[in-house]
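User: Just a sanity check before I run the rest of the batch. Below are the structure tokens for the first item. I only need the designed sequence back.
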């Protein structure tokens, strides 16, 4: 007597038209059955691992101290920031405070001292709180030295305390007789040209 194979069940491979059409070899599951098995395994893992994954390390997108990881009603680092705050933070981080202050003095010079004084002198530099002014003439340099307390009051009122702590005024530079990179020590030019 020969042993007959067991009857095939209706969803098993090789049974009926679906098994014949899929072309799966005998004894291997169909691709559709593999997909269903993978989906069922994923669902079981989700049910089992949901509580375990919440207890573990938070995902990268979550924010510390926030449930769910999304921005709420309170301010957050990911929220849009005011432009002025961002610029202040950038200036502080890069160490540009001195340069920005010098540029503010130069840009607002007419407003700080008035148009008459601004026409007769210009700021040259602002370093460590010392503002150096170049006057148009020696007479204006003398006049500005007398006006230093008034200028300090105006600048402090406009820019704040500690920006300018001292003002130094100098007149126009004297002409230089020096020509070229070399120099010979001696008496210099005299009134004997001819």
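Assistant: Here's the designed sequence for the first item:
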């Amino acid at each position: 007597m020969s042993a007959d194979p067991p009857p095939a069940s209706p969803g098993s491979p090789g049974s009926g038209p679906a098994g014949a059409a899929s072309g799966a070899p005998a004894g291997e599951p169909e691709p559709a059955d593999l997909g269903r098995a993978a989906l069922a395994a994923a669902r079981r893992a989700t049910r089992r691992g949901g509580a375990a994954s919440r207890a573990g390390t938070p995902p990268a997108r979550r924010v510390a101290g926030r449930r769910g990881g999304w921005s709420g009603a309170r301010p957050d680092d990911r929220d849009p920031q005011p432009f002025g705050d961002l610029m202040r933070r950038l200036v502080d981080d890069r160490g540009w405070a001195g340069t920005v202050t010098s540029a503010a003095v130069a840009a607002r010079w007419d407003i700080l001292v008035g148009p008459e004084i601004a026409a007769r002198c210009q700021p040259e530099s602002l370093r460590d709180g010392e503002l150096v002014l170049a006057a148009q003439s020696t007479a204006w340099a003398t006049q500005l030295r007398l006006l230093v307390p008034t200028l300090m009051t105006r600048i402090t009122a406009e820019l704040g305390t500690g920006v300018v702590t001292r003002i130094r005024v100098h007149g126009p530079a004297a002409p230089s007789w020096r020509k070229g990179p070399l120099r010979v020590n001696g008496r210099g030019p005299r009134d004997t040209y001819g």
